[in-house]
Specification:
By secondary structure, the protein is of the alpha/beta class. It contains seven helices and eleven strands. Strand 10 and strand 11 form a beta hairpin.
Length: 313
């Protein structure tokens, strides 16, 4: 078997979808310039992607076709050489519909792998946000604010090619700067973007994050039952029925509050939150019916209020 390279791009759904796609596609095109086969693809558990909720794109490259096929046989890589976070707030941990519970941004990084972050923060601030690991890894920062290069409107601020140039610097075994620039010219036919990649490659530096550095908190996790603890048959306990609400001021009871799974909470994904105007609400029930997460509570007055612990934005 040959060498398999894996890169993940973590981005905010819809807002940075085009940016992530451009990066993952260009990684494979640059690798092709050096005779390495590869594939780029997206991976998320909710379709269509929801506004701002973390999602991932992957680029898988190998030194030969057989190794690539072995890598493609997995649903997604179990470990990566590079993790790219196009928004530094994602370094606090990410939770998406593709997995359960808050996950460290550097969870899949191999020992000695590199976390590339778009940010104007200093390395110390990024390390403090990121969860600590038991193995050392490297951190490289691409200076800049998060690029909201979304599905419908693309803001071309060269974030994509600057990241490509940084990859050539931190993982030269994958491809060279010359190959990156050739792929950029084929794909975009823009010499300025090629120059931006070269400057990013020249300016990119990385520091080693030692084991134990970073956020010491243990991320939210699930305790799976042992085989001898499971009940008979294939049965999954349902969520209990809801109950009436109580007005916190008048203590009048009424309406309806759904009971929700005590462990399945997605509010850490939220970048926006709904605001309900009770003065203009006509009780049409559309918000109640259309929300895929059943995040609305019915008040004793028959109004529909968003429950922030159930709402993912």
């Amino acid at each position: 078997m040959g060498r398999l390279f894996a890169i993940e791009i973590i981005y905010r759904g819809i807002y940075q979808k085009t940016l992530a796609r451009n990066i993952s596609r260009a990684i494979v095109l640059a690798a092709h310039k050096e005779g390495k086969p590869g594939i780029s693809f997206g991976r998320y558990g909710d379709s269509p992607e929801r506004n701002g909720i973390p999602a991932k794109s992957f680029a898988i490259v190998a030194t030969d076709d057989v190794t690539l096929e072995e890598g493609m046989a997995k649903y997604e890589p179990k470990e990566v050489d590079i993790t790219i976070s196009v928004d530094d707030t994602l370094c606090k941990g990410v939770e998406s519909w593709a997995w359960y519970g808050l996950q460290p941004v550097n969870k899949l990084l191999k020992p000695g792998g590199t976390l590339i972050v778009t940010s104007r923060e200093k390395p110390e601030a990024i390390i403090a946000m990121s969860h600590s690991k038991t193995d050392p890894y490297k951190l490289a920062i691409i200076k800049g604010t998060p690029s909201f290069s979304g599905l419908w409107v693309y803001k071309d601020d060269h974030t994509d090619v600057r990241i490509l140039g940084a990859i050539a610097k931190v993982l030269p075994d994958l491809f060279s700067l010359k190959s990156v620039q050739a792929a950029i010219m084929d794909e975009w036919k823009d010499s300025l973007k090629s120059t931006s990649a070269a400057r990013a490659c020249e300016r990119t530096t990385s520091i080693t994050v030692q084991p134990g550095q970073g956020n010491p908190e243990v991320p939210y996790k699930f305790d799976f039952p042992k085989w001898h603890e499971m009940g008979e048959g294939i049965a999954i306990p349902s969520i209990a029925h809801g109950k009436p609400m109580e007005d916190p001021t008048t203590h009048v009871q009424g309406g309806y509050k759904p009971d929700r799974n005590p462990t399945f909470k997605k509010y850490t994904t939220r970048t926006m939150r709904p605001v309900v105007n009770f003065d203009t609400c006509i009780k049409c029930t559309l918000c109640w019916l259309q929300c895929p997460d059943s995040c609305s509570d019915v008040t004793p007055e028959g109004l529909y209020d968003a429950n922030m612990q159930a709402c993912c934005g």
